[in-house]
Structure formats: structure tokens, C-alpha cells
Specification:
5 helices; 6 strands; about 140 residues; alpha+beta; ph1033 like fold; single chain; six-stranded mixed sheet
Length: about 140
Amino acid sequence: MQYFLVKSEPFTYPWSQFEQDTSTFWDGVRNYQARNTLMSMKKGDLVLFYHSNEGMEIVGIATVLKEFYQDPTTEDIRWCVVDLKAHKKLNNPVSLSVIKQDAILQMMPLVKQSRLSVMAITEDQFYRVMDLSGTIG
């Protein structure tokens, strides 16, 4: 099992819309490092959903439903998507300010490489977010 974090601006695609849709393909990634991370995702991996720019907090958990394939929003073969399924809303969102102050979480790419929209995280970081949010998987 691997763990990841994806970012979405709530005014573009909020967690509430994701829950309503139940699943979606994760498109629009145009950074090679983020694309490579998408390509490493396997069916069943767990993905934290982060509201960026507005809210700036982790709000939910998704699972990888389908591994990478050609991004249907472009004909450029360099870009791919994965299908994600909404799994669970966190009991309490975990804010960026809390993440930056936490000894385990402050090493996340979310803090160190804040412009990335898709990133791998460690199992310890994933479960620390679960602890801080009061959420059980």
C-alpha cells in the first residue's frame, strides 16, 4: 500500500463535489514530477484530498480506483490521469498551519514543495493526519 496527497482548489473542484460525484479522473497535471507520481499509483492506494489556496487543509480520503491512462483532456501523450474514488470525509480537517508545526508532517512535500499538485507521502504521515483529524481509515 502506498499513500499520496492531491490538491484541488475548492472553487474549482471541492471535496463536496467529489463526494457527490463519488469518483473522478484526476486531470490537469502538467508537471513531470506530479505526473510521475500519478504513474506510480496503484489500485487501492490511499490518497489525502487537500483544499489549496482557499481553506488550505486536508479534508478527505480517496482511493485509487484505476491506474494511470492517457489524460482525456489533451491529445499530448505525455500526460496521464488516474481514477479516484471518494472514500471518507475527515472528521476534522487538518490545516496547513497544523501540518507545518507537526514534527512528522512538516517534512511532507506539501510543506517542502508546495507547488506540487500530486505527491507521495509516507505511511507515518498518512496515519498522523488520521490521528490529528480524529478519523479512523
